[in-house]
Amino acid sequence: MRTALLRGLPAALLTVLSLTTAPAAHAAETVPLTEAVAMLPLATESRDGYTREAFKHWNAGDDPADGCTTRNEVLINEAVEAPAVGPRCRLTGGSWWSYYDQTTVTSASGLDIDHMVPLAEAWDSGASVWTAQHREAYANDQGAEASLVAVTARSNRSKADQDPAQWMPPAAEVHCRYTAEWTATKLRWNLTVDDTEYAALNDLATACPDQTVTYTPAT
Questions:
Q1: What's the CA gap between 159 and 118, in Å, rounded?
Q2: Is 195 left (phi over 0), alpha (psi -120 to 50) or beta?
Q3: Interval 111-136 mean pLDDT
Q4: Which of 13, 50, 112, 169 could cysteine-pair with 123, CB 3.0–4.6 Å?
Q5: Burial class (CB in 10 A: 0-12, 13-18, 19+), 109
Q6: DSSP collapsed to 3 states, the chain
Q7: How far apart are the C-alpha atoms of 125 and 16, rounded to whole Å?
Q8: Residues 117-129: what's their mean pLDDT?
Q9: pLDDT band at residue 27, thresholds of 50, 70 and 90?
């Protein structure tokens, strides 16, 4: 009956109705770190079938017209001193702050773009059942600052695919921030945690009573 009624309405009014009844965009949520960790769903992890190629990256980025991949867009956005951008998005000059190890880097080639929650860990935690398009969106996510982080190659390779029960940044003063950003990324993408990871996050959160977590669910 509702469909029949709608057919009799002017097109302009239908447009207004569609705009006013469309689902609202996800809003950012901010909660204490301890509460955020408690929100993470528990599940057993499995790496069966994982390949890095299941996550297409780096793609043409948020602005395909700029000629830069996601990697270079992140480098440009996170630069402390902006690099010069040449043909084919070649970056020269500039400087960056690698917060994991509190190091200034003055060459883009000395940096890796770290997936806050590594691709393999994401696979273990729920991404194995995603579509290829959803995994590509995850691997190139610039919708949240914490998702992709420009850090020294050595710190990224030391981290590899480990979760906070196995690895934390060498700079102890950033552990609260790192725990919050890890938790925010898992909440943003509705990823699970296993028992060991949850216990580690809970201990870390308890040691960071003033830390909050801000995240926006991915669409």
A1: 9
A2: alpha
A3: 98
A4: 50
A5: exposed
A6: CHHHHHHCCCHHHHHHHHHHHCCCCCCCEEEEHHHHHHHCCECCCCCCCCCHHHCCCCCCCCCHHHCCCHHHHHHHHHCCECCEECHHHCEECCEEEECCCCEEECCHHHEEEEECCCHHHHHHCCHHHCCHHHHHHHHCCCCCCCCEEEEEHHHHHHHCCCCCCCCCCCCHHHHHHHHHHHHHHHHHCCCCECHHHHHHHHHHHHCCCCCEEEECCCC
A7: 40
A8: 98
A9: confident
pTM of the model: 0.87
